[in-house]
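CORE FACILITY INTAKE
Project code: CF-77B
Contact: R.S. (postdoc)
Sample description: multi-component assembly, four entities in total
Requested service: structural model of the whole complex
Turnaround: standard
Below are the sequence entries exactly as provided by the requester. Do not edit them.
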Amino acid sequence: MGTVHHRIGVLTSGGDAPGMNAAIRAVVRSAESMGMECIGIRRGWNGLINGDIVRMDEDSVAHIINRGGTCLFTARSDEFRTKEGREKAYLTCKLLGIDGLVAIGGDGTFAGCLAFANEHDISVIGIPATIDNDIGCTHYSIGYDTAANTALDSIDKLRDTMQSHERCSVVEVMGHRAGNLALYVGLAAGATAVLVPEEKWDFEKDVAEKIRRARLAGRTHYMIVVAEGATSACQVAEKIKKSLGLDPRVTILGHVQRGGNPNARDRVTASRMGYWAVKCLADGKTNRVVVHQNGEITDVDMVEALKTPHQLPIGEQEVLSALTGAKI
Amino acid sequence: MGTVHHRIGVLTSGGDAPGMNAAIRAVVRSAESMGMECIGIRRGWNGLINGDIVRMDEDSVAHIINRGGTCLFTARSDEFRTKEGREKAYLTCKLLGIDGLVAIGGDGTFAGCLAFANEHDISVIGIPATIDNDIGCTHYSIGYDTAANTALDSIDKLRDTMQSHERCSVVEVMGHRAGNLALYVGLAAGATAVLVPEEKWDFEKDVAEKIRRARLAGRTHYMIVVAEGATSACQVAEKIKKSLGLDPRVTILGHVQRGGNPNARDRVTASRMGYWAVKCLADGKTNRVVVHQNGEITDVDMVEALKTPHQLPIGEQEVLSALTGAKI
Amino acid sequence: MGTVHHRIGVLTSGGDAPGMNAAIRAVVRSAESMGMECIGIRRGWNGLINGDIVRMDEDSVAHIINRGGTCLFTARSDEFRTKEGREKAYLTCKLLGIDGLVAIGGDGTFAGCLAFANEHDISVIGIPATIDNDIGCTHYSIGYDTAANTALDSIDKLRDTMQSHERCSVVEVMGHRAGNLALYVGLAAGATAVLVPEEKWDFEKDVAEKIRRARLAGRTHYMIVVAEGATSACQVAEKIKKSLGLDPRVTILGHVQRGGNPNARDRVTASRMGYWAVKCLADGKTNRVVVHQNGEITDVDMVEALKTPHQLPIGEQEVLSALTGAKI
Amino acid sequence: MGTVHHRIGVLTSGGDAPGMNAAIRAVVRSAESMGMECIGIRRGWNGLINGDIVRMDEDSVAHIINRGGTCLFTARSDEFRTKEGREKAYLTCKLLGIDGLVAIGGDGTFAGCLAFANEHDISVIGIPATIDNDIGCTHYSIGYDTAANTALDSIDKLRDTMQSHERCSVVEVMGHRAGNLALYVGLAAGATAVLVPEEKWDFEKDVAEKIRRARLAGRTHYMIVVAEGATSACQVAEKIKKSLGLDPRVTILGHVQRGGNPNARDRVTASRMGYWAVKCLADGKTNRVVVHQNGEITDVDMVEALKTPHQLPIGEQEVLSALTGAKI
């Protein structure tokens, strides 16, 4: 490409994640520092289709680095999935003189970017943000750590009351197709057992036996963490009741996990990724996703990125089973 | 009475609440400072029945003031509801030389105290602790403020994501028979509407119309807080969907509200109430409940206490309706 | 008075406190709901002098209930202490048609109100907000509980590291003339000793001996909490080093205590007080301070209010000495 | 080596850090799951010298994963720096049959390990834990993220009150020889300027000019973050006062940064490193440090580790200057 961009757009799309505001701020300020103008596109791709835009400068992002959610709002867009929708979106770009786009979101957002860039003369850079951390191309997605700590804080509180009443708790955390959050949080919480969607599990071996071993080792309360994509917490609780005679309490953490002020890691990662995305545009790059790999921020090809399968971190699984239930 | 007690027991009973540990600590240390010995009774009344006890001194309560839950465990006891159960419990008291009891819990705990003291020669003092704050005789029960802040923190996080997605949220907080927590938290959260068990409510007037007014006033997200005793959050969400065409998200905060490190107010109240309870025993009192009334710690007759009906605070309701939905 | 107000002003003055925004929101929304218009006056009395104002409606206070600080800014004003300053301020009121004022702050703010109302035809209502909780006429001032929990969270963290290293800590909390915060936080933290400005203290008896007793009772770390008005943490640490041979660490919590999202108690109290203040104006009252007394929100005469001396709560002191150091 | 260890020791040494307990728990449980016995050595190397030890099993580490500080206590040991001290320590090992050691701490701790292992027949594995994150061989040290979030929470609170009063704040965070924490926190906090010990700084260019630019860009409050090793916050504040006429407030966060419950990242990292350390011993390795490199947990030679110079992360510095003050 090699074009020098004068005016770029930034949008958030898909489910929101803590740190999106910090990423927006970094995009806007980095653009300014590199001599570009930045337009905020509101409500995801719909904003580009409908011309729902707002001019942004250093001042408009002045107090958002520490705020959860996204000041540009977010939404899913069926219309952008159609060629017609993307054409409308391109008209907005043409009208405004936008020739570069930074899109903050997940795989669906990047797929939208690609379709758009394939059809129209626009440079696109993706920034991964999702509390599920299930984007294959990057080790880290913005929002993951804040969500993990939100879930962990709740489980720590649950632990207090479960311990007082000597009860069993089944907690459902977010993660439709990925168990990263469940595994990470379960490890941090000292869970008795963790169930994830990536792996087959057997109630007798992976839940009942672990509870038994914990009881034999002296525990009188048990914490089972399940990813929503693995099973339903209620079903697991029902089985525990039937099979072990315990009376478990179910907690579904739900959307609370999506909100909250981003923590240090998410603000720093978002700031670095936002800066990197704009640098990509300044360098004339397009169709790239900013990623965190091997401890570094870098960028990868967006087509390759979308092909990279999501994987559950192996190290954490091994440790989890060594630390819980391995020994009676 | 006028007896000088030499050895007293302390127990927690019913649902646990943050600050119970601070109350136990205060009872144990106050007893020591007034020349009495203190025995911890574990697992509520069951502990007295089964002799599940532990000797406590200054050191055994050294690092618990800031811990959630109760180090003495808690449970409900069917056996203590029987005369035979209470006789067994009394034998434990006789064996150990316990002639005074401090019981930390709710109305059910105090009813147990009364039945016990009516049949046996034992002085009983109750300390109110429940996150519902639904004990009629006292303005404040240990655990309420911590639970309220736990719920509020979650709702603040929800607000972030509801705002980003311009959605409606229905949140269910604890409170089977009392709406105090829902009202308090709803007021603090700037809720669009609050539903409590003490008051009849009409979906059209108390929910739908308030959402409409909020929309007309510029809001694009809405927060409905319901006490579990008023209705189910899922039902309210269903009605909102049908009646207003919104797609609300349901959050049930659940047992998380019972846990967590007690905050300043609960630690201070628990410390003061624990001290006061022991002073009551030292003064030869029995059948008293320590209460917070008119800004002061004092004690009231336990029979009267159990007759005092729980009331929803009027002031907060009035303010809530002035601040939300009153004006378009 | 009996005037019906059509346009009122609201300002924050003196040191800021968490919950001021919730109070502003309540004033603005209550005014609207009672048919009055509300003008925000920025930077305290200076804003009235300089015409630094902003029109406020339901929307302008839409997302501030959970924010620390004050969206109207605050400042101290030397000019308003002069008759000329107050005359300039009155001209702004006349120009804008403001005939009622709600001033959120401390004793100094109320003194300003009185001087202003004595000279000019304007109704004034004060709302107490200060993290020191040192306003004699009210049991509770907005911001106190949030500040106490901020300090307590820090002390809880300190406790971890002091315990690991078996060290002594001296923590200085805010409070020039009032020890309320120090006493409250010290009690909640399980402090070894607390020093407040209202009471004479003797190093040997009130610090050294308490540390010795704690050591004899098994403790190996000690937490001394001092109000900044009582002494300097550094001096106390110096004496501990000389007299007991320990090597204490000093922590001065400072302005961090003034900030942070207001907690449930401060948001609810601020909402109720803001509403009450506007109701006072609607009822034709002037020269009143909204207060929290005997568990209720009410209002008192401002002249009387300023005469009411601040007092340290007696109950908490007694409990503190029973729970720490009283017994070896 | 290749010895199979039957009994190993674990200790924490140097300054404590949140997550040390999670590491101890992982060492103890991993040892059990691999068939080794684990002895806790208290108060660092002193415990080995004095035989201050405690037998540990699954149960003794049951509720510590979420606790700050270290349950084994920590201390610096002058005696262990002498050959005689290390000989005494070895006698304890011989008496107890300890032939492997896991030492949790910083560079000083690892130097102690090496000296010990060079003189005596004992396998040593180090785990990096320090809130400064200044250990050259590893990208991440246990405690860093929790400390960063503690500092960030305080700065977020400060921001509220600085904004209300339109003031300048100078905050001193920990870091004698390393600016990592200051840089990380400063980036996350949106600081106006950050001063670190690794880089020369010029007041006029690196502080005054940045404040001026922020003012020109519309800011009315400024946040200067300094690492304690770079300069004193008081001196910077003094210069700002003299040079710019502002009246800055100084905050020294101090030891509070060392405490607090470890967050998810520190608990997970500690669990993984603890497990890895025991696996090293099981594999017959010695003189290794467990590290986090390129996104993975692995181990490196201890001699090499101690030679690896600490470096300030370059990426974060570049971003910081792009996002603050770069553009007027």
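Facility notes:
- Chain D has a mean pLDDT of 95.
- The CA atoms of residues 107 and 279 of chain D lie 21 Å apart.
Invoice: internal transfer
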